[in-house]
Amino acid sequence: MKYNLFTSSAIALSLFLNFPHPSQAQSSSTCQNTVNQVKNEIIKKGAKKALIETGVGSANDRRNPTNRRDGITITPWPSTGDNINNGYSERSYSRINNILNSPVLMNSWANMIMRDCSNIAVVTFCIPQADCVASFAASPEGKAIYRRQASNCDNYDRISWYEECYN
């Protein structure tokens, strides 16, 4: 009898640990909904679409003061296809420049993502087929902090978590 009770308890515990808990599933769902919301806002502001890339482990950096390890890159896109020339719109490209020249807007989106995506440590915004223009790093409190241009990019290991070497 003791053996059966132990076996049943072990199986139940194993099942509990191997299935996602409601809070984990909700967290993942909430994160995806927030990323989709940011994507939709970018499109409403004039981009034809928004490319979103998640870098799993890309923020696994000794300078990172958080337990978050992933990064996300957001590129507002001025055309309808993956090729920038497919459905390209100069008007859309102009609106994308307005988006990428608004640190307040990008900071707001980065904060939304960091609030709802507990694994995201860095949110970066890029110009289509060009350089990235802004990056936000998570503080230990989970707030997005703009990464300013580092004064010395020759020794990357010496720059702060809240600095970046932009091209």
Describe this structure in words.
It is a single chain. The protein has 167 residues and is of the alpha/beta class. The protein has one domain. Helices cover 39% and strands 22% of the residues. The chain has 4 helices and 7 strands. It has helices at 2-18, 22-44, 90-100, 103-116; strands at 49-55, 70-77, 120-126, 132-138, 144-146, 148-149, 163-164. Strand 3 (120-126) and strand 4 (132-138) form a beta hairpin. The longest helix is centred in the N-terminal third of the chain and has 23 residues, at 22-44. The radius of gyration is 20 Å and the shape is globular.
What is the number of helices? Answer: 4
**Major sheet strand order:** 1-2-3-4-5
- Number of separate structural domains: 1
Structural class, by secondary structure, is alpha/beta
Specify the overall morphology. Answer: globular
What's the quick description here?
Helix content is 39%, strand content 22%.
List the helices and strands and how they pair.
Layout: H1 2-18, H2 22-44, E1 49-55, E2 70-77, H3 90-100, H4 103-116, E3 120-126, E4 132-138, E5 144-146, E6 148-149, E7 163-164
Parallel strand pairs: 2-3, 6-7
Antiparallel strand pairs: 1-2, 3-4, 4-5
Helix pairs in contact: 2-4
